[in-house]
Amino acid sequence: MPKSRKQNLSNDNATRLYTTADIPQANKLSNIRQLVAAVKDGITNPSPLLQLLDVDERHFAYYRQAAIILGVLRKRSDNSLKLTEKGSTLLSTAEGSKEERAYLYEIIISAPSLKAFTSFFDGENISLDELTHRMGVMTGLSHSTAIRRAQTLVQWRKYILGEGPQKNKGLEITPITDQLKTTIARHNALTKQKYLEWLYKIDPTEFEKLIGRLIREMGYIDIEEIGGPGDLGVDLFASLMHKWGRPIKTAIQVKRYSKPVGRKIVHEFIGAISQHKCSQALLITTSTFTQDAKDAAGSDSRIQLVNGAELVDHLIENGIGLRLGEMGEIIPSESL
Predict the structure, then answer these.
(1) Which of 84, 199, 249, 277 has minimal Cβ neighbours within 10 Å of its Cβ?
(2) What domains are defined for the chain?
(3) Global pTM value
(4) Mean pLDDT (10-residue bins), the chain, 336 residues
């Protein structure tokens, strides 16, 4: 990397930053690239996108912010993401190549809030403790937050300098099998999004029948469809045979939402399964669950949450509309 660009990181001339959002906390540059590629492909549904990156909502927000800091994505007025010229240039490089690392270096040190770390990215010999201290002085971040942000910059430097596990044992380009895996992963995420969009559009009765069919394929018996006005918070009742032969009564509620399911829905469902004396319950959505909803469900061992991407996974596993091909790619299986 060009050594002429080194910049002193001393406390005397540091430019103070005022928000924690100025410094990224997203350790994997490969995930940032995946997010940029996903936006280019039109993947916007939250559950397939989170599954693609293998992160939760909180860590997705970190990667989203990191991509904005680097200028490879920008946020529209409606809060959606848009590919930028820098993002297109990044995707034009081969993943894991020398050209990709060089371009990542350029956009990192050109980011306004990261210019002060140019010498660090040039390979300055500095400990994590010292980097954390300097970052805290420059930004006003707490020590615990500063060390997490410093760890991100350490991981980024390892990648752009070709160090660590991402170096691929001296190869200058990610092996073709790895590139194929990422391409298939994005294809699958987009296919799941399209499937979920189709699920939004079908008749509600047909949708509940589809879920009933899935439940049956998964081994449930004595399925009773309850959904509709006055369903008391349960769409289906079913039984799953315990390994010792005792049927376990299960309540199933499906929320065909585009927005995350919140705590209120979970609390209402808890009341419903208690009223109906069910031993276990499935709360399924075509979207995602808020953290509050997850916390509420976590307090009741009877409840299992299933988000949109997981719902599609179950449909695929049971060959309902889609199935997996030989390379793990999602392909059509049958007419619905």
Answers:
(1) 277
(2) 3-187 (no CATH), 203-332 (3.40.1350.10)
(3) 0.80
(4) 44 50 91 96 91 91 96 91 96 92 96 91 91 86 91 95 58 62 91 93 86 92 74 82 80 91 94 90 93 93 94 94 92 76
